[in-house]
Amino acid sequence: MRPDMSEEEYKQAINALRAERKDLIEKARMRVKDHNAIFKKIKSAMAVGALTVPEISSAIDVPKESVFWHLTALKTYGQIEESTKEGDYFRYRLVSDTTNGD
């Protein structure tokens, strides 16, 4: 809460801001939902083993550029790693979760 506002004024300001930005908030929420769905599809496809970007793209019917972007995010957060290189592409595999005994 801001020091120059009462609690009630602050609540009103926040509610007004939420109403003003409702469309932007909804678009962002939907974008996150879409990205999470693609992450889930990628991980599901990779459950069978290491795959290349074109193989993942074909398996989940998502453009290669989008698959590559999502793989980069998954790699950044340690959920996948590069494996062997096949032609122009690396194979990517899921990183085992050793925190829960897998």
How does this structure look, described?
There is one protein chain. The protein has 4 helices and 2 strands. It has 102 residues and is an alpha+beta fold. The protein has one domain: Arc Repressor Mutant, subunit A. The protein has a two-stranded antiparallel sheet with strand order 1-2. Helix 2 crosses helix 4 and helix 3 (53-60) packs across helix 4 (64-76). It is elongated.
Question: Helix count?
Answer: 4
Major β-sheet annotation = 2 strands, antiparallel
Taking pLDDT < 50 over at least 5 consecutive residues as the criterion, the unreliable ranges are 98-102
Question: Secondary-structure element sequence?
Answer: HHHHEE
Tell me, what's the shape? elongated
Q: What do we call the CATH topology? A: Arc Repressor Mutant, subunit A
Share of helix among residues?
55-70%
CATH superfamily: Winged helix-like DNA-binding domain superfamily/Winged helix DNA-binding domain
Main sheet strand line-up:
1-2
Give the key terms.
alpha+beta; 102 residues; elongated; Arc Repressor Mutant, subunit A; 2 strands; 4 helices; disordered C terminus
